[in-house]
Amino acid sequence: MAVRAVWRVAALGAVLAFVSLLSLEYYGRADLTARREFTISPSTRAILASLPDVVTVTVYLSEDLPQHLAGLRERISDVLDEYRAYGGERLRVSFVDPSKDAESVERASKAGILPVELEAIAKDRAEVVTAYLAMTVRYENRQVAVPLTSGAGRLEYDLTSSIIKVVTNRRPKVGFLTGHGERSIRREYALAAEALGAHYDVREVDARDSASFSGLRTLVVAGAAHVPDAELYEIDQFLMRGGRVIFLLDGAAVDASTNLSSEPSVGNVYDFVGAYGAVVNPDLVVDAVSSVATFQARNVQMSVPYPYWPKAFGSGISRENPVVSGFDAIPFPWTSSLTLRPAGAGGPEITVLAASSDRSWAVPAHADLRPQAVPAPPPEVAAALDGGRGGRLPLAAAVTGRIRSAFAGKPVIRERDGRPEFTEPAGRLTVSAPTQLIVIGNARMFEDVLLRQFGSNLALFLNAVDWLTLGKALIEIRSKAVEDRPLDDVSAPGKAATRTIGTFASPACVVLFALARAAARRRRAGPRRAAEEAQR
Question: In the chain, what are the domains?
Answer without folding.
Answer: 22-165 (3.40.30.10), 173-481 (no CATH)
